[in-house]
Amino acid sequence: MDKIEKGFINNSLHEAASLYADATKNLDLWQSEKYAFEKYLYQDDTILDIGCGTGRSTFALYKKGFQSITGFDITPATLHEAEKISYEYNLDIPFILGDATKFPFNNSSFDKAIFAFNGLMKIPQRKNRTLALKEINRILKPEGIFIFTTHDRDKNEYYMNFWEQEEIIWCEGKQDERLYEFGDIFTFGKTPQKDTYLHIPTQLEVLDGLEEAGFTVIETFYRSELFHESDDVNAFPSDCRFWIVQK
């Protein structure tokens, strides 16, 4: 059985492109995102929106005055939807197809970068996620800010029993052969593509990757502890941890 690779990720996101496009049109920024973006982004910043998908955060930031923004994603189908929405809204936003482990940008190209909706953890293998963090560090200017979210395997007590059972499965070598590491899961989405890959990290794992990539944490918080999101937001993405880090 083949391991999870970029092609699988592309296919799963391809299936979800129209769903994400609808969300882009109907959902604004989360309250937690507004807090982080308003606190750490300035309107004259050059911003890279990594894993932008169909452009939910890209368009929202652009409309709020952050107009030196570039959308970046690995999936042609989601970028196609973003470009259609951009045309419909008559907006001038560049959307670039590419891989976050190898950006087509020069060193120190951006003031700030964001990776919304737990996108970093859709990259298979810890070594590749660390490589993406190093690439993000490379394309940021000195003291540049990177804002991203992850799930938090330590935090959500609702899933504690699940992870205890998962640990037994991995120790016995009975895990899905397509997966690489403990914390890798398949989630059941709202599309015909049921196998959607995601890695659920611990805080220590994220901190180790950030340190190796040359980032310093300046703020982190668990979304539900500080913000009461709308029902629409809570129905779409599950709870997550925000990370604000600096080069």
Q: What does this protein structure show overall?
A:
The chain has 247 residues and is an alpha/beta fold. The chain has a single domain, classed as 3-Layer(aba) Sandwich (Rossmann fold), CATH 3.40.50. The protein is built from nine helices and nine strands. The protein has a seven-stranded mixed beta sheet with strand order 3-2-1-4-5-9-8, sandwiched between helices. The protein has a two-stranded antiparallel sheet with strand order 6-7. Helix 1 packs parallel to helix 4 (76-89). The protein is globular. The model has no long low-confidence stretch (mean pLDDT 89).
Concise synopsis of the structure shown:
The chain is of the alpha/beta class and 247 residues long. The protein has helices spanning 6-26, 31-40, 56-63, 76-89, 126-139, 160-171, 203-213, 223-226, 231-235, and strands spanning 47-50, 69-73, 95-97, 110-115, 140-150, 184-187, 196-199, 216-222, 241-246.
User: Helix proportion of residues, in percent?
Assistant: 40-55%
Instruction: Give the overall shape, derived from the CA principal axes.
Output: globular
Considering the protein shown, what is the CATH homologous superfamily?
Vaccinia Virus protein VP39
Please state the structural category.
alpha/beta
What is the β-strand count?
9
The tally of domains stands at: 1
What's the main sheet like?
7 strands, mixed
**What is the CATH T-level topology?**
Rossmann fold
Q: Which second-level CATH architecture applies?
A: 3-Layer(aba) Sandwich
Lateral strand order in the biggest sheet: 3-2-1-4-5-9-8
